[in-house]
Design brief:
The protein is mainly α and 273 residues long. It has helices at residues 22-31, 40-43, 47-60, 74-81, 95-101, 114-129, 132-145, 149-160, 166-171, 173-187, 202-209, 229-272, and strands at residues 12-14, 86-87, 106-109, 193-195. It holds the Pfam family Sulfotransfer_4.
């Protein structure tokens, strides 16, 4: 008698691209009692998660110079998502891979008007990862403390957009957007796919997931949670940058103290002997 496969905890994959209301979807899925709903904002403080994402990008995107082509297993995805009953936001970058890794999960697809999506991506993602301030943190501060968050972020975005530079990513934006939604639709069996517009309120989502409308929203079924993702992300990034600077300063001071101590010892020995 063969042992049955263990049931995966990941039950819902919300695979609308980043900047398509993913924080609102995260809030909604949490209100529907899914445990540990994964969103990129939560990952900022988790260096182990970013190490996994870095490996996943290397395994997934052939345009990256670090591409390995080594298949990324469900067990490896479980290192990040294994305890999560639902995944949104950053998971969409690896949407096709997660559909294969979690074949029993239901897929929710939120699509935003392209022009509004691109404007948001440019302002909140491209400018956050490329530019003078981003270069300073990613290329100077993070190497000092051994952080891979910024480099992994860049790899994931360049991989998703099949680009080698941020300007090329911008040029590939519409093609990437259309390819993503086409691929998710083609890969997901119809009975496991919901194309969801938050403007339709709670009912379509709850019926698809087999959940009751949250008690606090009863009587307001036509509404849906709205989370200001841009503001939350800016706040989180600023907090993270402060932490990185503090850590880097401690490292610099510690290592700078070594030659200073050596000089002091040399000077003291010269005076005493």
């Amino acid at each position: 008698m063969t042992a049955s496969k263990p049931l995966r905890k990941t039950q819902v994959l919300s695979l609308g691209l980043p900047r398509t209301g993913t924080s609102s979807m995260c809030e909604a899925l949490t209100l529907l009692s899914y445990k540990d709903v994964y969103h990129g904002i939560k990952s900022i403080d988790s260096p182990t998660d970013w190490a996994v994402f870095s490996r996943a990008a290397d395994a997934t995107f052939p345009n990256l110079p670090t591409y390995t082509g080594k298949p990324f297993t469900t067990e490896e995805w479980d290192e990040v998502f294994g305890e999560c009953e639902a995944v949104t936001d950053i998971g969409s970058i690896f949407g096709p891979q997660l559909i294969e890794a979690y074949p029993d999960a239901k897929v929710v697809l939120v699509q935003r008007d392209y022009e509004r999506w691109y404007k948001s991506m440019d302002e909140q993602v491209f400018h956050a990862l490329w530019g003078r301030l981003a270069d300073f943190f990613i290329e100077t501060v993070e190497p000092i403390i051994g952080s891979v968050t910024g480099p992994a972020n860049r790899k994931m975005i360049l991989g998703l957009f099949r680009a080698s530079t941020v300007d090329e990513a911008r040029d590939h934006a519409r093609e990437t957007y259309e390819r993503h939604y086409k691929t998710i639709r083609e890969m997901t069996p119809p009975e496991r796919l919901l194309e969801f517009d938050p403007k339709d309120g709670w009912r379509p989502l709850c019926e698809f997931l087999g959940k009751d409308i949250p008690k606090e929203w009863v009587g307001r079924e036509g509404e849906f949670p709205h989370v200001n993702e841009a503001a939350a992300m800016r706040k989180k990034i600023m907090e993270q940058q402060f932490k990185l600077l503090k850590k880097a300063a401690n490292v610099v001071v510690r290592y700078a103290a070594l030659p200073a101590a050596a000089v002091a010892v040399w000077y003291t020995r010269g005076r005493l002997w």
